[in-house]
Amino acid sequence: MESCSLVDTAGAAALCSTPGGRRRGRAGSAARFFNCPGSSREHGVSASYSIGRMLSGVRSAARRKLFRSEPEWMGVNWPDSTGHHWWTTLENNFVLEASEDEYSGVVVDADRLPADGAAFARSLAASLSYWQSVGKKGVWLKLPVDRSEFVPIAVKEGFKYHHAEEAYLMLTYWIPDEPSLLPANASHQVGVGGFVINDQMEVLVVQEKYRGWALDGVWKLPTGFIQESEEIYTGAIREVQEETGVDTEFVDVVAFR
After folding, report:
1. Pairing between strand 160-164 and 223-225?
2. SS3 assignment, position 155
3. Is 145 domain-assigned?
C-alpha cells in the first residue's frame, strides 16, 4: 500500500494506537502532522508527509479533481490503481469530492456524497467557501433520489433547481457576484417526420393508433420526437422503423418549420 497522509485534528489522534502521538511542524504554522506508532497494516498509514509534498502529488496526478488540501482540514490521501489521488474524510466536514469542467465550474460527484444530512450540510458550506476562494464559478449538484433529504439543505445554501429526471434532481449555484452564465434547462421538444419513397415512387404513410375523431381515417407520414442527444436523421430513421417496421436510409433534410 502506498503511504497516506494524515492532517491533524482531534479525530486523527483516535487513529493512533497510543494516545500520545508525536507532533511535528514549524513554529507558528497551522500545519501539524501525526506519526502514529501503531502498525501501518492495522491503521492503513505508513508515513506522514509535508503538506508541500502531499499537494505536489495531488496536483501532478489529479489536476482536475478539486479537493480541499489545506492542513487545517483532515483527511486521508491515497492513489488508486489508475494513478488518481482521492481524498476521503475522517470527519464529515470535508470539501465535497468533485471534478472541474471546461468553464471553471465544479461538478460534484453524486456517487461520493456524505451519508447523512448533517455531514452534507457541513461539507457543502465548506465546499462553497473553498471553491469561491479558488475562483470557481458554476456548481452542478446532482442529488439522486435516495439523497432527496439533501435538497432543502442545498436550497438553504442558495442552490437553485435546474431540472429533474426520474432518478435525480439537478441543482446549480453561481458563485461570482455577477449574472449567472449557466445554461438553462432544455425547454423544447423536436419533432421529426420521415418522408419515405421506395423504388416504385410510393410514399410510406401510416394511421395513428390513438387518434381523436378529427384524425379518424387520416393517413400521414411517420412522425415522432427526437430523443435526448439524438441526431435528427437518426431520430427520423428510428421513428419510421418503430412505427412501420421498415428500415430506411437517410438521404437529406427536406424542410424545417
Report:
1. unpaired
2. helix
3. yes
Closest CA to 224 of 236, 211, 208, 206: 236
Contact 43, 15 (CB under 8 A): yes
Closest Cα to residue 86, out of 72, 75, 74? Answer: 75
From 91, 122, 157, give the residue that closes a domain.
91
- The grid coordinates of residue 95 equal 470539501
Contact 56, 47 (CB under 8 A): no
Give CA angle at 79 (75, 80), nearest 5°: 120
Contact 46, 40 (CB under 8 A): yes
Residues 82-125: tens digit of each pLDDT: 554 444 443 344 899 999 998 899 999 999 999 999 999 999 99
Domain enclosing residue 97, as ranges: 93-187
The residues facing 132 across adjacent strands are none
CA distances from 83 to 1, 58, 70, 80, 107 (A): 13, 10, 21, 5, 20
**Residue 33 sits in the same domain as residue 85:** yes
User: Integer distance in angstroms from the first to the last C-alpha of the chain?
Assistant: 62
pTM comes to 0.52
